[in-house]
Amino acid sequence: MTLWPLTQRGSAGGLHAYKVTISAKRCTPPDPLPVHEGHDWLYVLDGRLRLLLDEAEHIIKPGEAAEFTTWTPHWFGAIDGPVQLIMITGPDGQRVHLHS
After folding, report:
1. What is the pTM of this model?
2. What CATH class is the domain 2-99?
3. Which of 29, 41, 76, 96 is deepest in the core (most CB within 10 A)?
4. What is the spatial distance between Cα 9 and Cα 36, in angstroms, rounded to a whole number?
5. Distance CA 73, CA 76 (A)
6. What is the Cα–Cα distance from 17 to 15, expressed in whole angstroms?
């Protein structure tokens, strides 16, 4: 997963936006699914995103969005090729996604 920052540090409310590319190789979720403090919002630009939220599986297509608390066990990966999306996250989510 590669992230490009779209906002600078100190943005309003601590929120940060990223353009994200998820490799087609990211297709197998970890066990158990991770949880952490924060909230994520995703908007798919290209490709199909597989989003697991606890025991529910969601397929997010281009032009669709998802929002969830990251206290819910979660994971996202690619289906049938790479995925490009915009992700908005707070400081806690930013720390986890950038350093995991």
Report:
1. 0.85
2. mainly beta
3. 76
4. 21
5. 11
6. 7
Tell me: pLDDT of 86 over 50: yes
Residue 5 identity: P
pLDDT tens profile 3-48: 999 987 655 567 889 999 999 999 999 999 999 888 899 999 999 9
Q: What is the DSSP-derived secondary structure letter of residue 13?
A: G
Residue holding tokens 């353009």?
A: 19
Both tokens assigned to 24? 């087609």
For residue 94, pLDDT over 80 is answered with no
- Please give the distance of CA 70 from its chain centroid, rounded to a whole number: 10
> What does 37-84 look like in DSSP terms, one character per residue?
SSEEEEEEEEEEEEEEETTEEEEE-TT-EEEEETTS-EEEEEEEEEEE
35: how many CB neighbours lie within 10 A of its CB? 14
For the beta carbon of residue 58, count every other beta carbon within 10 angstroms. Answer: 13
